């Protein structure tokens, strides 16, 4: 897993990615994404198309993994891809597997402080690690979660 850390103004962003098989773990219940307008997916696919990449489709399991991690970070007051003792797994692989997703490749972007989908998209687009994740040719699905101003994007193939 690779980590990238960027301090941009008051925003901290990190990205990680992983390939390989997921191990199934127990999952808790999830709540729907709140405060999302739906423009993120269109913006993401337009960005990918402009770079010669195929579209990614919204995926309910990835949305659940993203939303649960955003909620956990917001409620427990931390900001990391690692969530030791987290109710949905200790890391990205465990959180995604907990939803039942059996991915072949997966990546996660996190952000804090942005107040809109446009702001978080722009922040990720301007960060090399996040940009690389959003443009990953191997990905065919995505899920976006938000809790307060904590954001999580999960991209995967095979979920």
Describe this structure in words.
The chain is an alpha+beta fold and 159 residues long. The chain is built from five helices and six strands. It has helices at residues 39-50, 60-76, 92-98, 117-125, 128-134; strands spanning 4-8, 11-19, 57-58, 105-112, 141-147, 150-157. The chain has a six-stranded mixed beta sheet with strand order 1-2-4-6-5-3, with helices on both faces. The chain is globular, with a radius of gyration of 14 Å.
Task: Write a concise keyword list for the protein shown above.
disordered N terminus; 6-stranded mixed beta sheet; 5 helices; CAP domain-containing protein; alpha+beta; 6 strands; CAP_sf; CAP_dom; signal
Condensed summary:
It holds the Pfam family CAP. The chain is 33% helix and 25% strand. The chain is an alpha+beta fold and 159 residues long.
For the residues shown, what is the average pLDDT? 81
Count of helical regions: 5
| Structural class estimated from helices and strands | alpha+beta
Low-confidence stretches: 1-35
| Residue share in β-strands | 15-25%
CA-based shape: globular
- Rg, rounded, reads 14 Å
Strand order of the largest sheet: 1-2-4-6-5-3
Describe the main β-sheet briefly.
Answer: 6 strands, mixed
Fraction of helical residues: 25-40%
Number of strands: 6
